[in-house]
Every structure is written in C-alpha cells, then in structure tokens.
C-alpha cells in the first residue's frame, strides 16, 4: 500500500481515527471481528457494508441493466453474505416483463457493488467465497 504524506493533516486524521476506533467497547470489537467471517443474513460484512435485506435490495436496484426497473428480493431470505461478498435472488420488472435473476455483490466500504458473474465466478474461493459460490454462481 502506498501512503502519501500531506503535511500534519494526514497524521492528525490517522490519530483521530485511532482515537475513534479505540472508543468502542470490547463487545463491539468482538462483533466486528466475527462479522467479517459471518455467513448469516444479518450483521456487518467486509467492513461497514451491512448484510441485511434493505441494503442488498438497494444494491440490486442499482445493478447494471436493472436501473429504472422495479427490483425486489425474491423473498426475505433470498440472499446471503460471506467474507465481503453477497448474492441475492431478485425479481426485476413487472407483469409479463418480470424476470428472476441472481446478482452478486462485493462490499466496498459501506456499499455493495454489483459484480459481473462471468468475471468473478471462475472457481469457488477464487473471488466469490466457497461458502456462497454455488447459489451465487451456479444458479440462473
């Protein structure tokens, strides 16, 4: 990782960040540590991206090719997250134009970023974690 120094501002920001990080209780630290490996459908995954139905559905609505369409999760349990990655089974469109699809996301900061399955689904664990590879990459 390359670091560029910008006078005392960089040092001040790093120091402030360290102080904020140190303010949490020990239980906060424990939950953050376990959340990165969490494969449940709730909690934080991959930093600050939240693995919940609302966050995943919002990310799906912003997926390329689905902009402007009605996009909903197939049901409240039709998504899962693991190690900074997520997938969801979604319904897009309405009426005769409705389709069911699988979308894959990678956590970047606080956002779930849609990924091209043909690019990220080469082999289990290559990019998409093995824990969710089959439903994320080998479904419709």
Please, could you describe this protein's structure?
This protein is of the alpha+beta class and 140 residues long. It folds into two domains: 7-35, no CATH class; 37-137, no CATH class. Helix content is 33%, strand content 24%. The protein contains five helices and seven strands; from the N terminus they run H-H-E-E-H-E-E-E-E-E-H-H. It has helices at residues 7-21, 26-35, 53-61, 117-120, 130-137; strands at residues 44-45, 49-50, 71-73, 79-82, 85-92, 99-108, 111-115. Strands 3, 4, 5, 6 and 7 form a five-stranded antiparallel β-sheet that branches. A two-stranded antiparallel ribbon has the order 1-2. Strand 4 and strand 5 form a beta hairpin. The longest helix has 15 residues, at 7-21. It is globular. The N and C termini lie far apart (38 Å). The relative contact order is 0.13.
């Amino acid at each position: 990782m390359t670091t560029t120094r910008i006078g005392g501002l960089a040092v001040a920001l790093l120091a402030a960040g360290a102080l904020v990080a140190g303010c949490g209780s020990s239980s906060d630290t424990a939950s953050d540590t376990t959340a990165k490996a969490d494969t449940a459908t709730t909690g934080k995954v991959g930093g600050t991206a939240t693995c919940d139905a609302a966050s995943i559905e919002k990310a799906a609505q912003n997926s390329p090719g689905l902009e402007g369409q009605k996009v909903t999760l197939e049901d409240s349990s039709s998504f899962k997250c693991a190690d900074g990655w997520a997938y969801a089974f979604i319904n897009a469109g309405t009426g005769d134009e409705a389709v069911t699809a699988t979308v894959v996301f990678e956590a970047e900061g606080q956002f779930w970023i849609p990924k091209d399955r043909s690019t990220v689904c080469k082999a289990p664990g290559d990019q998409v974690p093995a824990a969710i590879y089959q439903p994320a990459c080998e479904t419709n």
